[in-house]
Amino acid sequence: MTKPTRILVPTDFSGASDAARVYATVLAEAFDATLHILHVIPDPLTMGWGVDAAYLPQLLERIEREAQERLDKMLTTEERGKLQARLAVETGSPAVKIIEYAEGHGIDLIVMGTHGRGALERMWVGSVTHGVLHRAHCPVVSVREPRR
Q1: Does residue 1 lie in a domain region?
Q2: How many CA atoms lie within 13 A of 111 on its CB side?
Q3: Which pTM was predicted?
Q4: CA-CA distance, 51 to 49, in Å (whole number)?
Q5: Distances (CA, A) of 19 to 11, 33, 37, 62, 114
Q6: DSSP letter for each residue of 60-105
Q7: Domain assignment present for 35
Q8: Strand, coil or helix: what is 5?
Q9: Given strand 86-91, what is the order of strands in its sheet?
Q10: Which partner from 24, 39, 42, 49 sits 20 to 30 angstroms from 93, CA to CA?
C-alpha cells in the first residue's frame, strides 16, 4: 500500500458524512495529505423537483451558493491551511461526479460516510457509496455515523 497524498471526502452534510470528514482529517494529518471535500448537488432535471425550467438557473445558483457556504464552515482557516484543503461543489449524479472528481484530481483515497441502509432500501433508493465502491480507481473507506 502506498501512502495517500490526496484524500477525497464527498459530503451530503449528513452525520455519516461528518464522521467520514473527521476520519479523513485524521488520515490527512497523519499522512501529510491534501484533503478535498466535495458536495454534489443532484441534477434537478433527473430528480423530479417539479421546478419550472425558467427558474432552474436561479435555483441552482442559490443551492450552489448555500452548499459552498456550508463547506466553508466545515474547516477552520487553520485546518484549511494545514491540510491544503480544497472545497468543491458539483452538480450531477453524485456517484458519477465523485468518480470524475477523484480521477481528475489524482485522488488516491476516498473516505465516504455510509448510512448503513439495508439491501431492500438500497435496491429501491440506490447507494452513492455502493456506486463509488464499485467504480473507483482507488481505495474507498466507508465510515458509519457513530451510534448514540
Answers
A1: no
A2: 26
A3: 0.87
A4: 6
A5: 10, 18, 13, 26, 9
A6: HHHHHHHHHHHHHTTS-HHHHHHHT-EEEEEES-HHHHHHHHHHHT
A7: yes
A8: coil
A9: 86-91, 34-41, 6-10, 109-114, 140-144
A10: 24
Long-range contacts of 116-120 (CB under 8 A, 24+ apart): 116/16, 116/144, 116/145
Give the pLDDT confidence score for residue 72 in this predicted structure. 95
Instruction: Of 10-14, 45-49, 143-147, give the range with the top mean pLDDT.
Output: 10-14
- State which residues form the domain around 75: 6-144
- pLDDT tens digits, 46-65: 655 555 666 677 888 899 99
Q: What is the CATH number of the domain that holds 72?
A: 3.40.50.620
Spatial distance between the Cα atoms of 19 and 113, rounded to a whole number of angstroms: 7
Predicted confidence (pLDDT) per residue in 100-123, tens digit: 999 999 999 999 998 755 554 444
What rounded mean pLDDT belongs to the chain? 87
Which residues, 6+ apart, have CB-to-CB distance to 142 below 8 Å?
A: 20, 112, 113, 114, 129, 133
